[in-house]
Amino acid sequence: MGLASAGRKPERVSIRHRLGRSDPVLFLAALALGGIGVLAVYMAEADYQQHYAVNQALGLLAGVAGAVVLALLDYRRLQQHLRLLFGLAIAMLLVVLAFGFEVNGSQSWVGVGPIQVQPSEFAKPLTIVVLAGYVAQNSFAQNLTFLKALGIVSLPVLLILAQPDLGTAMVFGAIFVAVVYVGGARWYQLGTLFAAGAVGSFLAVKLRILEDYQIARLTSFLDPQSSDPGSYQVANSKMAIGSGGLTGKGLDAASTLGDLGYLPEDRTDFIFANLAERAGFVGSVLVLLLFFLLIWRVLHAATLSRDRFGVLLAVGVAAMLTFHVLINVGMATGIMPVTGLPLPFVSYGRSNLIMSLLSVGLVQSVVIQSRLKSEGTPRP
Asked: What is the dihedral of CA 66, 68, 73, 77, to 10 degrees?
């Protein structure tokens, strides 16, 4: 009997059993934010047109389906395909430069039939996987490891800057710093990077590598009276947030600043201001608490992981989401530059919404596999 049992292949873990080992709080927080996003996009439309809200809802459904699929897969298998995944990310960014079309001054989009896709959004989780996989397998005792890790991020950043999309490129910087720091990078390596970044930024301004409008956009928050359009947007954003008061004007309120056309991009870049005007301080705090809950559970997944790859994967996702939230909310409140970064799960845009949900799916895979391993359950 013992010999027969020893020769038998381990039973596959059922889908129900794997989903039962996921983090329901993480999933519900992401779903709640996605639902708020659909409602916010609907309310942001003049006369409550349904076109954008329907598109956002479809993106939410597609993202949830993709997240479930990724959660059920074993994230450790991705380490076997790092070169392929990196090649895919670079290929997408090259395609958008060759065949993409321009929106708001950046050639960041490609059309796939009736669907518009922003490849740089999907390059983010792909780069997180590749960077986390490389750092997990190498030691920063060798400076070459740090340089190669920097190269993994630098190539997509250069291609995104060529679009140009400075805000998205900055996200990759936040991801890199978080992953290599947790991965064991030396202080002098990070210090050298920051010094080089400061010198590079100074030269970019002095040598006019950055366009004048980009410099004005990045510095307009320091001068609220600036003539840059970003200052006008931020001023009206702060006015909308303040006019919401404690409980807001109501989700179905008419004559909000957004409805009257005084709040540009009220369903994308400045959707937080639109929400604050309608839902007030209470609603704004609720949204921020949901983000706090979401990012806390992502970081909790890192503490559960039994391998460096899982830890760094979760840290990269947490850094990406945190940077997006800080910049977008800071932009709406006038304490951060206007970079055009969306509020994850909430701002209109199917590419960012699906990417955010897929990233949550990757983190759920880390949670599931860690819990299965702690139980001694055979790997599916």
From this structure: 50
